[in-house]
Amino acid sequence: MRRRSTPVRVGLYSLGLKAYWAQFEGLEDRLKGYNAFIKGRLESLIPERVEVFNFGLVDDERAARRAGEYFNTYNVDVIFAHSATYFTSACCLPVHQICKAPAVMLNLQPTPAMDYARTHTGEWLAHCVGCPVPEAANAFNRAGLKLRIVSGLLGLDETPAISLTDEVTARRPEALRAWREIKQWVQAAYVKRAMAHARFGFLGGNYSGMLDLYSDFTLMQSSLGIHIELLEMCDLASRLDAVTDDEVEAKRREVEDFFIVSEDSPSDPIARRPTPEQLDWSCRVAAAQERLVNDFGLDALSYYYHGADGNAYERLQSGFIVGHSLLTAQGVPCAGEGDMKTCAAMKICDLLEVGGSFTEIVAMDYNHNTMLMGHDGPFHISIADEKPILRGMGVYHGKRGSGVSVEAKVRGGAVTTLGLTQLGGGKLRLIASEGEAKRLPTLAIGNTQTHVDFGIPLDEYMSRWFKQAPTHHCAMSVGHNAELFAKVGELLSIEYVLAT
Hints:
With 500 residues, this protein is of the alpha/beta class. The chain folds into two domains: 8-194, 3-Layer(aba) Sandwich (Rossmann fold), CATH 3.40.50; 198-498, L-fucose Isomerase, Chain A, domain 3. Helix content is 37%, strand content 24%. The chain contains 16 helices and 20 strands. It has helices at 19-23, 27-45, 61-73, 93-98, 121-125, 133-142, 173-196, 217-224, 233-242, 245-258, 276-296, 312-317, 320-329, 340-351, 458-466, 482-492; strands at residues 8-15, 50-58, 78-83, 103-109, 147-153, 199-204, 227-231, 260-261, 271-272, 300-304, 334-335, 355-365, 370-375, 389-393, 403-407, 413-422, 428-438, 448-453, 474-478, 495-498. Strands 12-13-18-17-16-19 form a six-stranded antiparallel β-barrel. A five-stranded parallel β-sheet has the order 2-1-3-4-5, sandwiched between helices. β16 and β17 form a beta hairpin.
């Protein structure tokens, strides 16, 4: 089911000064060794999702121009410029004037400290990587280009034979921190490329009156790169008619693997054990939903339908939640109520493999200082605390019909919410909040719910969040991902705000 996104294309080159090679024997080959090490590390950051295009050593402005054309040829998504020794800024600026991919300077020293008693000039030049970075930063600024800089240790596993000091720094915190940040830039570039090739479906319409959810689809494509395919309920209904009994049985087995079928709720009279008819219908609709996604090549789907009482499409939409939860778990995030912006936030989370479950405020728990957050579905099953529960719903509150809903919670520990909103000036804004998911009692009403402590008093948190003009939905991810989401926002050229 999951459509494989095209790998992110990462450009790499190392910087030096041509005058050094004849003066200091072995220096050029030593720096090329560092370059090869970085290439290997980049390729291993997100296996099968990274292609590295390594130009090698750039040591004068003519090589810089060739490197810029090289990176344009391969349409790279991000360029890592490795400061390998001192270089003049004329060695790097032309690369990025020619190729406009985002630039990240790697200021990674091979050793924590030189052996001062034995170090000669050639040895020092292999370690003076920070020296030219201010010059490059100044040149980029004056040229109107943005330069991102990662500083730390190189992280070698063994010391080169030529070295006069210990260069094994793989476990040093300065190396671990630097490579964590480098990975985040690669992940952010992967999201940008994947979104530029993604197809989102919009099935039906928005929940009438939810003005925050109404989206400008042209703005969504111009900002995110996504294509939005407008779908009608008849597109799904025609596929429902083609579903076979074997497909329904296969979906039933999938449902049994993923879910626990509930008994009656102990507290809510409308939340009951699903009837065999409700389960059969949900499985049949889920099979049709999978056909729809495959036929249109969708990577995500936003949906909602409201029609006349008793019409066939109303019955069809009553079976949506189970199938859309299954699709979400398989890499096709589905967002209800026609919320295309939150669907995009969910897709960003899913591409980063941190979940992305459809979420809104359920209530506040002032006794535990937690926000109870969730929705009536769909849910990202891969980040569930336990097996999700299926409940039969006599009424979908605020909507027509009845059917089967998902009751689940996100596993305990670090979480980050990510919202995408459209502002009055016609721009998008990403809003994130980091917190801790707590294992506390929730309601047995057929909704997903998770207690989240955002680390500050509830009223202060809500003031900060509401101030950013969010929609009332967001995506919930596992882990503290604020720094990662910030880099995604930067590469997408979308404003990013951290509300905690």
